[in-house]
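Trying the structure run again after the queue cleared.
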Amino acid sequence: MLSTLGLLLIANTAAADTYLTWCGKEWCVRDGTGNPGSNNWNSSGNSVWVDENQKLHLTIQKVGDTWYSTEVDTTSANYTYGVYSWTVSSPILNLDPNIVATMFYRHNDTNEIDIGATQWGWMYSDRLNYGVAPNAYQSAIPYDSPYQNATDVTYSFDWEPTYVHFTAKLSNGTVISDWNCTDQTSIPHVEGGVTMQMWLMNHLAPINGQNAEMVLSNFSYVPFSVAPDTSDTSDTSDTSDTYLNWCGKEWWVRSGTGNPGSNNWNSSGNSVWVDENQKLHLTIQKVGDTWYSTEVDTTSANYTYGVYSWTVSSSILNLDPNIVAAMFFRHNDTNEIDIEATQWGWIYSDRLSYSVQPNAYQSTIPYDSPYQNATDVTYSFDWEPTYVHFTAKLSNGTVISDWNCTDQTSIPHVAGGVAMQMWLMNHLAPINGQNAEMVLSDFSYIPA
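Done. Tokens:
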């Protein structure tokens, strides 16, 4: 899959995306504006580059009156259990307090493993942080450590089904930091990608007013023998993760709290299930005094160009104004293709939205449309290197919505996963106070 995607990427010379090769892997260089920290991201060769010694440089730089952060992501998102190691030539434990230098694995907000060199804005803070999202966190390397100016440090984590073991080691083998996370509510069991960033907290300029740089001399990944999406699930039976099989694919069912909308997510069989007719049910439900949203994600994250189609048995174009029903491809915040049935909180809004992140958006199906109560609608997009073509079609073949996105600044060229959600805008209760449901009878993906 990766080699095929690489050929497609090379062929797509019209795209605005920037790529580089480092440590035998292809990386996408981020551009635009977005989180973390509402930063500006610069993909120019003056901001991110591989030098003649094959070292990767990421920077924080002021260009004109604007401060820019930098990020690179693997174009492949099929990384799983194993040992991840980065060797950093430059000292990153003494960066300006407003700068964050990170190296991490990520599937989504609740499946992430982070190594972060930062003081979080306070000069007397510890200089290194480890995180296993959503619940586990450890800080290390105190501000007065003799190692805060260390160079050629290898930062690594060994991610296994029951633990994540972090270390930071000097070039002479001295371990300067060590933490073993065994929090079973946090350890991921899904595929994802690898990322490195330098960014500014809350888009604040460095306190010292100076540009900064992280220089990485090596990255390596040694896979563990069992991938999360194989049939060997016995290793993860003691975790709180929930999985289901639907349309020939394994899906992870989300729980916990988080975005979008700062929602509570419920993975119970009363909230998300596949019925006797092999239809998938996602719900918005009030349990006690708490409203819960629902989400399922493919455990595989190697989806690329092709046709994605969902057939929805229930009517989702007439949902409560505060509810969003979403079907999408996602790699990260700036590589996402969305179909969302929602009114965005306003009863006279259009009922369907298409987007290709970060810049392209189209709304459709007006509030007084004769199709707002339609059932058995197939929502789809055909994602190719130069366009994304969206359609919504009735069971009799009638096309009720159609949009072709050709915005080359937005079309993704990286692999990612597929997800479906029902969630509440800004965690607001439905205006009508009623539970809601989306029933999907089919999903298909036909690679390009």
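The first helix runs from residue 2 to 11. Worth checking whether this holds up in the mutant runs.
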